[in-house]
């Protein structure tokens, strides 16, 4: 997460790509405020997904981020389409 403080790295990570891409960022305990700050600093806020089995974490992230549509839960859908487009652990 520290590397995203660099404007060039942040711009690259925030560039919208159309394809099967997922940006995964490693962050540590106590860095959630920085993660939320970076998420809200992105140019576009179309869709987001939060996957966790910690309800308090889900609520904290969803309450403090800006997004047109946010999918959250233990298994989050990536689209509002009726098909099952899961990301994260599906376990079915």
Jot down its keywords:
two-stranded parallel sheet, two-stranded antiparallel sheet, 4 strands, globular
The class by helix and strand makeup works out as: alpha+beta
Sequence of secondary-structure elements: HHEHEEE
User: Proportion of β residues?
Assistant: 15-25%
What is the 3D form? globular
The average pLDDT value, as a whole number, equals 77
Distance between the termini: 31 Å
Tell how many strands the DSSP assignment holds.
4
Please give a structural write-up:
The longest helix has 10 residues. It is globular, with a radius of gyration of 14 Å. It contains three helices and four strands. The strands form two sheets. Strands 1-2 form a two-stranded parallel ribbon. The protein has 92 residues and is of the alpha+beta class.
Structure described in brief:
With 92 residues, the protein is of the alpha+beta class. It has three helices and four strands.
Task: Describe how the helices and strands are arranged.
Elements: H1 7-14, H2 32-41, E1 47-51, H3 55-63, E2 69-73, E3 76-77, E4 86-87
Parallel strand pairs: 1-2
Antiparallel strand pairs: 3-4
